[in-house]
Predict the structure of Thiamin pyrophosphokinase.
Amino acid sequence: MVKKLQPNEIAVISHEDIDELAARALVEAKIKAVINTSASISGRYPHRGPEVFIQSGIPVLDQVGADFFDRIKNGKEIEIHGQEIFQENRIIGKGERLNKESFAQKIKEAEKNYDIQLGKFIQNTMEYAAKELDIVGKELAIPELKVDFKKRHTLIVVRGKNYKDDLSVIRSYIEEIKPVLIGVDGGADALKSFGYCPDLIIGDMDSISDETLKCGAELIVHAYPDGRAPGMERISSLGLTAAVLPAPGTSEDVAMLLAYQMGTELIVAVGTHSNVIDFLEKGRQGMASTFLVRLKVGSILVDAKGVSKLYRQKLKFRYLAELVIAALIPFVIVSLVSPNAYQFLRLIYMKLRIFLQI
């Protein structure tokens, strides 16, 4: 939906506990307001998604009800007055305005409930981990690929928190090492936005642009363990071909297993989901597959998540002063050795004194 939004339109969504990434995508679309049929923050667990709207000055009307979609049509003009929504001077909906005070109250409530959610999450993770042990014990039925992973690093990019900042910080690594580039769904768009063409794109193909899918990368549709691959419908509609890889877990898990199994020397991950909040924001009630995959590939995995916060390169005045002084040293030596250069510098010095009247 975000790709279809135009500036100053009102986004009508149904997204309980909206995650920060989705909120930023809406803000970047330059929308006028958000109407959410669900609660942008339910109070189940603490997250900062709705705060993105508040900081950007975008009004949010929450909990207008799931049947609101039946009362509106895409492209029709509506108005928001306070907590009420009007169309042609007729009230068609009512919700709760999200502001700093209500958000702060929800965060307090969420912090109290977090231990409960954490307990459920851990229990769910362990239950599913016991069922998905094949992720560690068995190898994937990987289709034949053109890209060679042997004796090379692999960079896996997922469209997660701060993925743009982290990708920007490791650009020098990409330029120097030239790793195999894997884009996981929207992560492939991220690579393209930085001027890189992915070697491999893997995912269910629901959050990636047509342009990137046509960039020439090898395509792998992540299918359910029973072989169902809904993403193939889109690939076929674009006249493209792709391999199908049935596997449990998330597409980023499968990308790591694929690189590991193909003999890569090192896996560098950007934007991956690795903590409880990440998974709860994506609507997942456990992280069994991610836990198992990281156990398996952990010896060669480097998670670059948050590296932009760890290291921010800045040009300090001291460095600049040292550079200027270093450049002046040979110039001064030449002026002392050469009489002509000395006279030239003396002439410049006198003109500066006259110009500055000193």
Observations:
- The chain has a mean pLDDT of 84.
